[in-house]
Specification:
Blueprint: E1 3-7, H1 11-22, E2 26-30, E3 42-45, E4 48-51, E5 57-58, H2 61-70, E6 78-80, E7 83-88, E8 94-98, H3 101-112, H4 116-138, H5 145-148, H6 151-158, H7 160-163, H8 169-176, H9 180-187, H10 206-214, E9 216-219, H11 224-237, E10 240-242, E11 247-253, E12 256-262, E13 265-268, E14 271-274, H12 278-285, E15 303-311, E16 321-324, H13 329-339, E17 348-351, E18 366-374, H14 383-401, E19 409-415, H15 417-424, H16 441-444, E20 456-458, H17 469-482
Parallel strand pairs: 1-2, 1-14, 2-10, 7-16, 14-20
Antiparallel strand pairs: 3-4, 5-9, 6-9, 7-8, 11-12, 12-13, 15-18, 15-19, 16-17, 17-18
Helix pairs in contact: 1-11, 1-17, 3-4, 4-6, 4-10, 8-9
Bound molecules: flavin-adenine dinucleotide.
Length: about 475
């Protein structure tokens, strides 16, 4: 039986391992941490459980499909959300973003005066982009010549105008919507892959289709249960997991990888799938200048500064997902991408999993995950910068909620770009690898195969098709379709 070494147990690494095991490879996942999941991680403190990374679960069908392909009973329980997010605008307006399009359009009309037809037009437009791009750009490689000969690719290219690559997201949203708040809400989708809506192509508006037309969900036992269930499935199939096992180097001969060096030990392998951040891969594991490194020139996506607060009180006015917007959104993105500094009036995201998973916090309490976007830079944030941002957030949230929230913080932890880099291996803490701040971003992402070595493949959020749980699962599917060692 041929052996495959998978580097990293992020969601894409586990999904790829399951798929290759089904093809009868002898698969081992080497994970440098003592537990699987990568950016999907959790910790407990004083009776509060926190999901530390992703919080929004979309396209669960990709997980259902994995279970179906394996022919196993589905074990991941998840529920659809009625309200995806409660948005608080700087002018005091509050809007619930419903997954149901009719309800969402009615809410936007009632609270912002936005004509319902505009919301329908926006979501109709994003559906068209999805229909034209999904099969070509999300579920297939775009880096092999044969892809360009497929009818679906030609169909997409013939309708390139409809894909909206020549306008920015903000320009398109401004053309389709009248109220500045509605534009801000739709512009925010750029941050779902760490990009800037004032620069990123309007093709990225496809994200609103995924959230509204396809729906948003939440796992009944929290985000980490996605990892638990996939690890259970992989183990049942015979995938081996090796923890505290850092791959330090790949040994190569001619145009093939021959061994993975794990904690100093040389392990022979017929094929390798890397789920590492692609920049880290080239700087740490294959320390050579290679053809593949040409894909590393785009801007990085944003990172994050996160405060995990165990709150000794519950706040009925908050939802599972909540956003408190910056007043000047453009200035926030200029700060993140141009001056590369934290912004002094940041958009704040508050995620409270105990709203859905009651056991995630003691009775009458809530687990708050409070995040602001941060630039991805090599320099670490100083303690003073972190403390100042904490104070800014406390003041802004206290003002919006009408009480001093600091007095309810019973316990806390912090994650910084530096700690995100340390735990998940994300280069400079960038959450999604390259940003999509260019018209050619999709083509500038590293392919799912190595241009240098025949038996080396790549999955995960920093390579094609991109970051986020659904796209990571798609990358595993693509590798499954091209894997040949
Ligand atoms: C704060 C935050 C919020 C997010 N929000 C969302 C969200 O709401 N919705 C969403 O869909 N996505 C979200 N994402 C993105 C999503 O979490 C990621 O795109 C996805 O989990 C990345 O998975 P991956 O397969 O690329 O691997 P990663 O999660 O990046 O894991 C890579 C693994 O490789 C291991 N590794 C690295 N180097 C080595 C080595 N040399 N040897 C062995 N092991 C190694 C690491 O330890 C790690 O476990 C968020 C991410 C973060 C951090």
């Amino acid at each position: 039986m041929k052996t495959v070494s998978v580097i990293g147990s992020g969601i894409a690494g586990i999904a790829a391992a399951i798929r290759l095991r089904l093809k009868n490879y002898d698969v081992t996942i080497y994970e440098k941490n003592d537990k699987p999941g990568g950016k999907i991680y959790e910790f407990e403190i004083n009776g509060f459980r926190f999901d530390t990374g992703p919080s929004l679960f979309t396209m669960p069908g990709l997980i259902d499909e994995l279970f179906d392909e394996v022919g196993q009973q589905h074990t991941l329980q998840y529920s659809p959300l009625d309200v995806v997010c409660r948005y608080h605008f700087a002018n005091g307006k509050v809007v619930d973003s419903y997954t149901d399009v009719e309800k969402f359009a009615a809410e936007m009309n009632e609270k912002l005066g936005e004509p319902r037809a505009n919301i329908h037009a926006c979501l109709h437009h994003s559906r068209k982009i999805y229909d034209l791009t999904a099969d070509v750009f999300l579920f297939d490689t775009i880096h092999k010549f044969r892809s360009y000969l497929k009818p679906k690719f030609l169909k997409s290219m013939l309708r390139i105008g409809r894909l909206d690559p020549f306008k920015t997201m903000h320009q398109r949203n401004t053309a389709l919507l009248t109220s500045p708040e509605a534009v801000q809400l739709f512009d925010r989708y750029a941050t779902y892959n760490g990009s800037n809506p004032y620069v990123a192509p309007a093709t990225l508006n496809v994200i609103s289709h995924i959230e509204h037309n396809m729906g948003a969900f939440f796992p009944d036992k929290g985000m980490y249960s996605i990892v638990d269930e996939l690890v259970k499935l992989a183990t049942k199939l015979g995938v081996k997991f090796s923890y505290n096992a850092q791959v330090d180097l790949l040994l190569t001969r001619d145009n093939r990888v021959t061994h993975a060096v794990v904690n100093g030990q040389q392990i022979p392998c017929d094929g390798v799938v890397s789920d590492m951040d692609i920049r880290k891969f080239y700087t740490h594991v294959l320390q050579k200048k290679m053809k593949g490194t040409k894909y590393l020139n785009d801007d990085l996506s944003t990172s994050a500064l996160i405060f995990y607060w165990g709150m000794n009180k519950s706040f009925p006015q908050l939802q599972l997902h909540n956003i408190f917007f910056a007043e000047n959104y453009k200035a926030e993105f200029d700060s993140l991408f141009q001056t590369k500094t934290l912004y002094n009036d940041p958009t704040i995201y508050v995620f409270i999993s105990s709203k859905h998973v009651k056991t995630d916090a003691p009775d009458g309490c809530e687990n708050w995950f409070v995040m602001v976007n941060a630039p991805s830079v090599g320099n670490k944030l100083t303690q003073t910068q972190i403390a100042e941002m904490r104070e800014t957030i406390l003041q802004k949230l206290s003002l919006a909620l009408g009480e001093n929230i600091e007095e309810y913080i019973g316990c806390e932890k912090t994650a910084t770009p530096e700690s995100i880099e340390f735990t998940s291996g994300a280069f400079q803490g960038a959450l999604y690898g390259n940003s999509s701040n260019s018209m050619f971003a999709a083509f500038n992402r590293h392919p799912n195969f190595s241009p240098d070595f025949k038996n080396l493949y790549f999955v995960g959020g920093s390579v094609h098709p991109g970051g986020g749980i659904p796209l990571c699962l798609a990358s595993a599917k693509i590798v499954d379709s091209i894997f040949d060692v």
